[in-house]
Write a structure and sequence with these properties.
Blueprint: H1 24-56, H2 69-80
Length: 81
């Protein structure tokens, strides 16, 4: 028995079904699923990182009105004093 594939008996050859690649739509589905899981993880970490800030400033947060950076800074300066 040699090492070339031509030297191997037919019984040792792989059938055509073993050479079929994974369908491309399944690969796209897997990549999309991994992207969604990654996005959910980033959002979860972001929300948990912002939770203490949002809980602390919830009462001073305006129901309506200006949410400009200047207004938020003035509001946070008033709450510190």
């Amino acid at each position: 028995m040699g090492t070339r594939y031509q030297d191997q008996p037919v019984e040792h050859w792989a059938g055509p079904e073993s050479l079929d690649p994974t369908p491309v739509w399944k690969q796209y589905l897997l990549v999309a699923l991994l992207l969604v899981v990654g996005l959910v993880a980033v959002v979860a970490v972001s929300v948990t990182a912002l939770a203490p800030y949002l809980a602390r400033h919830r009462r001073s947060w305006p129901a309506t009105g200006s949410c400009s950076p200047r207004a938020l800074f003035q509001r946070s300066a008033r709450s510190r004093s």
